Amino acid sequence: MYENYYGFKERPFQLSPDPRFFFASSHHQRALSYLQYGLDQGEGFIVVTGPIGTGKTTIARNLLNNLADKSIVAAQLVTTKLNPQELLELVVSEFNITVVGNSKADLLQGIEKFLIQLHQQGKRALLIVDEAQNLPSETVEELRMLSNFQLDNKPLIQSFLLGQEELKGIIQAPNMEQFRQRIIASAHLKPLSKEEVKEYINHRLHQAGCIKEDLFSNAAFDLIYDKTLGVPRKINIFVDRLLLFGFLEELKNIDTDAINEVAEEMQVELTGSLNTAELASTEPNQVVVNSAEKVESIKEILREIEEILEGNIKQKIKMARYVDKMLKHKSRIYTETDQSTEK
């Protein structure tokens, strides 16, 4: 796509978490330090919370990727709408534990046996629970019960919980007192500041092999911050789209005009929407034919539909131009290859 046009080795703003592209803002670095501290302590729970798209999963992947301690056997859970039984089944699956039977007692016995074997080998288990805000309170309690597995006064398993802000409410519930007493550190991620957005984008561009120093102007960085509010996932979606737009329009630099045009396109799309405001319901509770207010409301709905259709048409035109450009590029490559073969 746009990689060759801008001289990248790979796409710099992919959505999938990649430790190579990890950017340590002040908040991210603090959270990572807490996770590392938790590892060094070898006990208790570490809790990292933050809004959607602020990089909690990326931190977990970065931690796992840089584990220098070979004595730690780690597993990560990403499916968390689980009852206690399902949680134990998933733990057994992720750690590849052999279990005879599938009752809760069988699962617990299998997990305990596995943890004791690790301890005898000088190792311990680390369980990273992503999207932990989806865990029912009784499943969080089951995690606490797993932390009771000990041998020689040492915990055999440790858990890190990563979740959205709703996780705070679950942990602060009155019946979670015993769990709260097991938390040794917690951190809350925030969106990037305006200066960090510039550093974040330049970091990812550099990691992808970009050698252009002026691909984005300072004004462009500021405007990207305004459009994304500093949320890393939104930045990835938006800047990836900007680079595709720049490729289609054959732009050497991304300026504020391009940013505003792409932002306007994305406002009427479902994917990667930059609009953080909730859409008000447009369905009337009761239709009153002679109501001027209702008529105006219907007109507004029709105008919104028209804008969406117009935006989709513009996007289809751009994609058609992109396909045409790629076909011409392929044709040129084949022609050059044939000519070199004939020589």
Automatic annotation (TrEMBL):
Region forming the signal peptide: none
Molecular function via GO: ATP hydrolysis activity
AAA+ ATPase domain boundaries: 42-210
SMART domains per UniProt: AAA (SM00382)
Coiled-coil features, chain-numbered ranges: none
InterPro entries noted in UniProt: AAA+_ATPase, AAA_22, ExeA_AAA_ATPase_DNA-bind, P-loop_NTPase, XrtA-assoc_ATPase-like
Entry protein name: General secretion pathway protein GspA
